[in-house]
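Hi Q.,

Before the meeting this afternoon, I wanted you to have the adenosine-3',5'-cyclic-monophosphate prediction in hand. No need to reply - just skim if you have a minute. The sequence and ligand are here:
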Amino acid sequence: MAIERTLSIIKPDATKKNLLGKIIARFEEEGLTIAGVRKVWLSQQEAEGFYAVHKARPFFGELVEFMTSGPCVVMCLEGEDAIARNREIMGATNPADAAEGTLRKLYADSIGENAVHGSDSAENAAIEVAYFFRSTELF
Ligand code: CMP
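Predicted structure with the ligand bound:
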């Protein structure tokens, strides 16, 4: 295992439900640290750019509309095996399939409004962290 960095987004549904503190506390309790954090309201262009890999999917328009519907919190999480750990803590993309106790099981309403995002690979983690943070903003 290695110390890794990964991107986490607390999405507009969770932000609207006042869940920022609970979600951030969970990451810290699980041993991940916050190397960088920022509250942002994504523009359409920023959301489309971030999710460009999903552009051809039928849900792309819905996804961009949701991600621009309110503020998000973007974080760079750091720790041992952070990419996989973050995904375990989040649970499956669809909250109906997510394991008990995971963030999506606890807080998400649907596959579209699923509370949190986390990078799915080392390659994407590097791209996604750089999408929101300069290296000088991470500690
Ligand atoms: P996320 O981990 O942010 O990565 C891509 C997002 O697309 C995913 O979470 C979901 O919010 C969304 N998504 C994936 N599949 C669907 C779907 N079938 N319908 C609506 N949204 C989806």
